[in-house]
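pasting input
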Amino acid sequence: MYKNFPAFICGKQRCCIYNPVLILKLTLLLVTASFLQASAITTYAQGVTIKAKQATLKEVFEEIRDQTKYDILYNSDDLKLAKPVTLDLKNVTINQAMDACLSNQLLTYSIENKTILIKKKTVIHTDIVKPPKKITGRVTDSKDLPLPTVNIKEKGRDNRTATDINGYYSITVADEDATLIFTFVGMVTKEVSLNGKSQLNVTLEDSPKQLEDVIVVAYGVQKKETVTGAISTIGTHDLVQSPVANLSNALAGRLSGLTAVQGSGKPGEDGSTLYIRGVGTYTGQTAPLIMVDGIARDSYNDIDPNEVESISVLKDASATAVYGVRGANGVILITTKRGKEGPPKVSATAQTAITQFANMPDFVNSYQYASLLNEQSYENYWIQHANDADIHTWSDFAAKRDANWIKEAVLYYSPEDLRYYQNAHTPTVNGKTNPYYDPYGHPDQDWKKQMFKKFTPQTQFNVNINGGTKSVKYFISLGYLKQGGLFNTDYMQFADEMQFKKSRYNLRSNLDFDVNKDFRVSVDVSTQYVTITGMDNDDYTWEKRILWSSPLGSPGLIDGKFAVPFSNINDQLNPLYAIANSNGYVIKNNSTLNSSVKLTYKFDSITEGLSLNARGAYDSYFESQSGGLFKPLLYGVRPNPNGDKLNPILVQVTDDTPPSRTVDYYTGKWRKVYGEFSVNYNHTFAKKHAVTGLILYNAEKKYDPKLLYNLPHAYLGIASRVTYGYDNRYLAEYNMGYNGSENFPEGKRFGFLPAYSLGWLASNESFFPKSDYVTYVKIRGSLGKVGNDRITIPGTNPAVDARYLYLPDTWQYGGGYTFGTLNNRNPVTGAYENTLGNPNVTWETATKSNIGVDVHLFNDRLSITYDHFNEHRKNILSYKGTVPAIVAATLPPYNLGEVKNWGDELEISYNSVPGKFTWWVKGNASTNHNKIIFQDEAIAPGLEYQAATGRPVNQGLYLQANGLYTSWRDLYAMDANGNPVFSSPVRALDKNGKPYENAAGKPVFQKDLGYAGAPLQPGEVRLVDVNADGIINEKDYVRTGKTDIPELNYGFSFGFSFKGFDFSALLQGVGGVAKYAMQELHFNKQQSLFQVDENRFTQERYDKGERIDFPIAAYNQAGAYNTFFLKSTSYMRLKNMEIGYTLKPTFLKRVGIKSARFYVNGSNLYTWSPNKIWGDPENLGFVGYPLTRTYNMGVNVNF
Amino acid sequence: MMKRKNIIILLLVCFIGGILSTSCKKSFLEKPKGGSVTADTIFNTKNQAQFAVAQMYLLCIRGYFPTNYNMCRPEAITDQLYIIHPSYDWASNVIGTGTYITGNMSASNTCDYGTDANNGFSTHYSGIRQANLVLKYINKVNDADNAWKTDVKGQALFCRAMQHFELFRYYGGVPILNKPLDGAGNTAVPRSSVQSVVDSVVKWCDEAATMLPASRSSAEFGKATKLAALALKSRILLYAASPLYNTPPNLKSEVAGARFNDTRDTVLAYPTYDKERWNKAAKAAKDVIDNAGGAGVSLYNTQKPETDPNGQSYASIGDYESVWNVMANQEIIMANTATGDNYWGKYLMSKIRNAAWGIKNNVPIEFVQQYEKKDGTKWTLPASGSDLPTDLKALNLDPRFYQTIAYDGMYYNSARGILSYYKKGDYTTDGNLASSDAGLDGYALEVYKFVARIDNMTDNHLTWPVFRLAEIYLNYAEALNEYQGPGGEATTYLNLIRKRAGLLPKNPADVDAFRDAVQHERTIELAYEGHRYNDLNRWLKARAVLNGTLHGIVTTARKGTDGQLKRTWQTVSFVNRVFPVKYYYVPFPVGEVSKRYLGNKNWDGQNPGW
């Protein structure tokens, strides 16, 4: 593939095929903008063989061009003067060939990149000043598309211009033979000599991409090629693809080693919990450090994704060591966009979406509900009477049960009731009034339909402008998000305020001032203003109101009036009323300000590559809240004495209360001051020894009245990094953090946390076979320490950090007692001992090692990255578990625990050859496993299987379930009639399959292995008598099963572009994860029942082979904490899918639009999960505000 | 131009330098002085020190009172109360009622109530620690005279004794702590013998009695007095003399399954029976009685044994009902004054009080039948009847029945009117109290002791007695009978209680008959005041009383022949009660047993059978 300048050779305009991938490429390449100049261009070493006799130079040049793939540029006029040449060259270099061609000519040549320029030999007239000359032309890319804002500079002079929106430029040069330098981000810089031409059209080539990428690392950037740590990165393109209201939710499945777990879909609380490489400690301190533009920032979820240039996840010690104290759980670096030199580029995005619940259980109707509860009462009779003295045989029992179960039933619905429920929606039968239609006395309410909306809108706007001059560069972005809620609040007084919703305004301004060529001042200011509204006490709204309601509890709303049965004035029977009545609305406003000033001064004058940086940052946060409440009237509904079922009497049973609103009051505020000073050094000696150095000093103070003791929180640290690269082949890096924490006593306050890493770029070795198959191989490894100084006070919710762990015991006020008599009350505040101090407390450290390989194959189209990591936490700050309760003091944390954490990560991507149909696939998968090596815990001898030590973090204690009892045959011998013989119970078998005895030597029977001896019947869970003592009790709990942190995370995405269309999809999933599903008890009094409960065990259902998800309706709840309900929550989601179409620029040019892209996308579109019937796998067992699914459409316009 | 730039640079450098330089100080990471409260702050002035004292009361003077929102009456595990669906009712979970009454109490879910995962166990020691900290630091208070310090020390000794007693009544011998332990030193304090615990509590009570005043001003009502210390001594000595700990040979078999039969048994009981322990108990009770007058304490007796059924004022209620309705009345030796208004309504759930919502404190027939007829005779309830209020009134029971237990058809007060617990039957709606938290039931009897009735249902006048004189009278009668037989003062004090209640005196002729009489009297007089659980245990009667089925009464509304509402009733089973012999001693929490400090090298310290 070779190229000519169109004006010289082609002369004709090729058809413009606009490739939408270009935008993607441009965006990606913008990241790399300022580092391109540093990249070396590979020289081609192609031999030339020519045999020619009296050939024209043009012919020879064409031959050379064919052989070498070099472009040869010449002015045809010049060649007219040339003499024919005769040559006999064999495998010579290009220079030798050119020398031979031009030896007797009046021409000379120069080689620039892959281009040979043929010029006339210039006669030097030093005393003649040539007149200025105006040059015009056009710059296009390889697809012949115009390139705007290309920088054009006359070589050797301070004379610049740039192309306009259509790629045209004009520049006045001093010398008609001047050389112009064309630079554009993401493209190879080109120098072209004018050779007297006044028009010069230039095509710029995409720069070879992979190797030149830079990635953001701690306190700086590095060329990806030279990075030796384990870092994953995504850019803005992937982020804005997910129509989500939270930055964290856009990360799931995108980055290897990162786990994102979303627990709620409620606007304002729908962010994901992030883990990097799983968890390495059992104390709950698992959150990674979040750095926004180099500064630790507490809130990041509300940053507009359009402001974000890239997100890097730093995983190993080498990458995180400079963060020392706070890097133990990994670090996430969020880098926002900055201005680039050039005319203003405006990008505007508008999108609107509808959101709906991704997974909402179906509740049973009244008839099913009543039948299930009758079934439960019937089965309960055995549980209550199995051990009655007068029951000796099955027929004794059956007779007694049939005579009494209805009487003893807690809830019983007669056949007549059932018939009414069946007819709850059938007013007429065969045209006649249905006598069993009684919608008020026997209602059947679909509460779900009345309480929730089918969907809600979500809209997002962003407009940003980016550009700059030589001395000022700017990026300014304005964003807006509005996220609706899915409750139906129309029937409430404060309908709008009660709705869960969120709106957000984002503003960011990143400015760079180049005061002079050495001195840059960067001023970044961003704010987020968020308003979240909705009901208070929303746990109750969900868990209690919905799960406490039954379809037959009340007739709901009658003519807009809330009704409950007059015989049972209980607001929970009518969840609509219960929600409206017991919830006030809450409006929370919070605003975040992040600001920083950064000064960079280059001291190349002292020594090349030296620069100093100083930075100050100020962040503040303020949250205020207001609310209100309206208690609607409640009516009791009683039957009309005239017997007319359709005209019940409504009796007002509550009094009018006026609506109330509360004034705004503040609920949270903090501010943070940060200062940083660093010295940077970056120089390459003798073209082979690349050395960089960094020494950074920082300090931070956070002021928050909610902090313990009302004292500001302080951090202090020194970080340094030295890297050395030899000849782009051998890389070494040393990172160090030296940090102080207020939590530790003097002498133990500072932690020294070093990390070392090495890398080998095997593909740059001379012996490495050059081929298109294997183009890049790097092997890297790292070893280092990071630390943690944080621990929360147990039992605090939300968690409060313990502080000054070394201080002697403190006291606090609270509690107290009231003395005195009725008319002389004397309340006295209490004072009690707070946490005791630990004078020896110090750093918790994690030793992390990482080994990784990066391989690029098939001309860099396929790239593979593999990492294996090990982490060893020691001295984990944790509380003692073996101190007797009789001490009854709050003991301080000690450096006690030890945990190992390990895993593997793989990232693979493939990009097709760009063309009409361009496609790509990307995949990542990561595993993480951990094991507690030591945790201070009290385990009684013989109960070692309950210890946390030796097991994964967060593993739960469960009774062991071995399926269900599916027949009486499992419990008793059966008689000829197929009934159990109570006098012949079945012996229980031990783990060897043998009958066994208990400690008293009595045989153990299967029937006695109910939890704590509860009577068993078919459909109960078969629990394992782990310690073989003949009773199932707390000693049979075993620490077992998967935890709620996935062992496997994966993401797989693919996409293509074709004729202006682009498509992409992301599949994301987790494995090796489980949750306990019975968070809310089922069949518990008057609670709602849903799909799971319908799939309960009955002998008939079992015998028919129907799906069984639940034990019998009368399931004995006391022993419910067993593995039957520990459900796998592995899942795979179609997390994201997008189709876009980019309009042709020729059409848009007329309206001044550079490009416009229309797209539709969606998130959480479909989920595959084995236990979906229990709820969404990410918040299984807890209804909460379920996760949502979003369908979104939008347009992005660039001006 | 350049100059201005330099100025800007200089300013910025100063700005950032300023931020950094402040942090260069060594103190940057130090905790600034002040801002935290230490023992020196608290025990500096009387005003501060009283906060620590108040907290000591909060933690130690819990008596039998349910101090937590999630709690039901402590009687839920005895024969005096039945709460529907106890296995998962929030109201009784904290004392594990559901598992307890079905024989399934476990070491991880016991009936000792508290606020954390260790049930009550560690909560008791929190109180003990607070008392020990007060004792440790109180001498540091600068502005207090010795008299004040002595008083506070006396209170702390009393509080410490109180919580050791609370532990003792559940677990038997427990670790004795007379100083605060710190986490770093030796914390493995094993269980002490029953004898050591009783002796320690008695010793602290004796010491406290010498330090505490005879009475308190009204603002200090609720604080320990000399009489309270003597009352606690009386109670623990009565317990110590009782068969559970001081087992006579004829009762050994009753408790055999709850003994190790080796030296470990010292933490469960005295090694041998000693009658002299009854004498000590009698003397201690008499000591209280003798000192009562000086403290202004006397039996509440205005010669008004009966409550006016329609009355709603103090004047209308009988003396027995007044004892718990009149705040700070003369019979109270010590009360739990807790935290003021509406405490009761909040913490003592009752269907009567909450009407629409709440748990229902159903009374089993087995307990109702404990009430004698007014003439002193026994009776048995038939299986059904035609109108409950008529039938119950016709029984003409001990007046205390009608001052303790509410029933379907009873007039309560103007706010509640006639209580209606019935199922609808012939009528269109169920009674408004017919359902509980668990649904419709129609159970017709509910305890209303400590539920406001008079005074427009305001709760704040109720008094929860920690000690009241009637208890001491009965302690005295019980101990004296065991030591020297019936007659004399034993009979006198028994009949003082009966007389106040409006009953005829009893004169049992022998020790056994008197024992039955005094146990009966205690059961009725102190009903729902938290004594039943321990009385059944220490008498070794729990197995007899708490194995078998408890029954209740369900009423259904019928239209009578006269067209009037009739509350027909029938008895139904409540629950089949199971009381394994190991229940006599509550198990220590699993976590504590696992720490291996309670016992010795060869024994984990857990009570037998657990």
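fyi Residues 1-45, 124-128 of chain A have pLDDT under 50 and may be disordered.
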